Structures are given as C-alpha cells and as structure tokens.
Amino acid sequence: MTHATDTGTVGTSDGGEGLLIDIGQLARLLRRSVASLERDQVAGRLPAPVYVGGSRRWRRAEIGAWVEAGCPARDHWDQIRAAK
C-alpha cells in the first residue's frame, strides 16, 4: 500500500523508499551534496525531474537506470530513453 508522507513523497507501507524522491534523498542515494546536485541539475547533468504540485522529484527507478547507463548528460539520457 502506498501513502503520501509528510515530506510530500510517495512512500510504501513496508518502510521502503518511495517511487519519487526529493533532492535530499537523491543526494543521500548518490552520496553527493545537495549543492552539487543543484549545479548538475542546472547544467543538464541529471535526468529531468517531475513536478508534483510544485514539488520537484525524481523517479527512483529512473535514477537507478541512469546510473547503470553511466550517468550520461540529460540530452544523451533522453535519447537513450526515447530509443527504448
């Protein structure tokens, strides 16, 4: 069962990570600082976020696939995804 958490992310009742993660969770997942990820976001080095009610989130599954692909720049990542 899924539910909205107080941080605005979608969580699971089993205590696992949600489907959508915020920049702080992304920083912990990638072991990078929020500031460095903000710079990467502006420079187009991260996958595009999704916006839910004005909140910026990333798809956890997409981040995993992006890392497996070698963390390509957003334009190249978009091409990879479009080819699938």
3D architecture notes:
The protein has one domain. It has 4 helices and 5 strands, in the order βββααββαα. The protein is 44% helix and 19% strand. The radius of gyration is 13 Å and the shape is globular. The strands form 2 sheets. A 3-stranded antiparallel beta sheet has the order 3-5-4. A two-stranded antiparallel sheet has the order 1-2. With 84 residues, the protein is of the alpha+beta class. Mean pLDDT is 86; it is low at 1-15. A hairpin with a 5-residue loop joins strand 1 and strand 2. This is Helix-turn-helix domain-containing protein. InterPro entries: DNA-bd_dom_put_sf.
Kindly summarize this structure in a few lines.
By secondary structure, the protein is α+β, with helices and mostly antiparallel strands. It has helices at 23-30, 34-43, 60-68, 74-83; strands at 2-4, 10-12, 20-21, 50-52, 55-59.
Entry keywords:
84 residues, alpha+beta, three-stranded antiparallel sheet, globular, disordered N terminus, Helix-turn-helix domain-containing protein, DNA-bd_dom_put_sf
Fold blueprint:
Elements: E1 2-4, E2 10-12, E3 20-21, H1 23-30, H2 34-43, E4 50-52, E5 55-59, H3 60-68, H4 74-83
Antiparallel strand pairs: 1-2, 3-5, 4-5
> With helices defined by DSSP (H or I, 4 residues minimum), what is the helix count?
4
How do the SSEs run, as a string of H and E?
Answer: EEEHHEEHH
Mean pLDDT rating: 86
The total beta strand count reads 5
Helix percent reads 40-55%
Major sheet characteristics: 3 strands, antiparallel
| Beta-strand percent range | 15-25%
Shape: globular
